[in-house]
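@channel sequence for tomorrow's demo:
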Amino acid sequence: EDPLARFIQYYQLSTEESLLVLIVLAPHVLPDFYDTLIAQYLPEGGNFPAFGGVKGEHRRTMLPTGETALFILAGNDVQRRLQLQMLLSNEHFFVKQKILYLDQVKSGEPLMSGKLILDQEYVEMFTLGQISIPKLSTNFPAQYISTELEWQDLVLHEQTLTQIKEIENWVNHHHTLMNDWQMHKKLKAGYRALFYGPPGTGKTLTATLLGKYTQKPVFRIDLSMIVSKYIGETEKNLSNLFDKAQNKDWILFFDEADSIFGKRTNVRDAHDKYANQEVSYLLQRIENYSGLTILASNFKNNIDDAFVRRFQAMIYFPFPKPQERQRLWEKAFPEHIQLEHNVDFQQLAQRYELTGSNIMNVVQYCCIESLAKASTTLNFPAIQQGIARELAKEGKRI
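structure tokens (generated this afternoon):
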């Protein structure tokens, strides 16, 4: 039941592949593993060039290189060393899936002199038995999002819910479709969906619920950390994101996506040229991503046509109708609040055109006011006051 044993069994690793994983994992468990080993053979000090190895940037002990692995597995047997190099080639699944690979070396230096790198998630899985959620950073411009709500708390039009169910079915069964049914030969990897409609209609909540019920982490992409005014930086940031997410079965959620997925323009200057290149690069990376990608926008027409053609689903989140607004009101208040007899949710739903987000803002205001007054009862005028504050933000009146 050990995570490393399960990994070896799942991928049916050969002896050499298993040893390669152990070679790169060793200093993560015993930092001075290789230094101690070499000291046994060179007790008076000195170099052992054939063994390879490099010093870490933030540590004084030795880290293994490709040369280290070849020496341990093949010694000086040239033919065997050449065969084993295939374990670190771009065609091996270790490298394809970014599990284990060689660090880049300067031009002209032997490829095998690169440091062996085991993806941090696999290091955590093999040593701690679990993988921590990556944190928002410049190297990973996305934030993990979740919810304690359930599907029954989501109020949407019936047609919208049906389309959401189709996405849930894909997440649950796409591995069987692509692998067991061999459809990877005919279908492109991944699933791309566009959620569009007015703000506050449930697009983000739907994405988090999809993750919750399919047991897939959902990451909301922080576009402010991706888009850069410097040439090439936007592509670099996107590359970091997709490289980290590849083969992880994560759900990537791009909120306000039209800010980066917007329509390409006619090239009038260098700025337009590079802006169009960014959109083209993004299109390429999303199309190659094997998981679920969700783009959210207030307006479908703001999204570049090249993206639109590649969506498997385009789901409209309409402004809630009176009967849907009534359900939102009925679900919104906590059990601690007692509503007076003059509170009529049907009347509220008919009279005030509010989204689910608007309604929750009103409920929060009313609850805070009740707590401040040390009261657990709420009447119709108090709710109307909360509605008036919410509408005023949009320049409207009751």
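heads up for whoever presents: The two ends are 63 Å apart (CA to CA).
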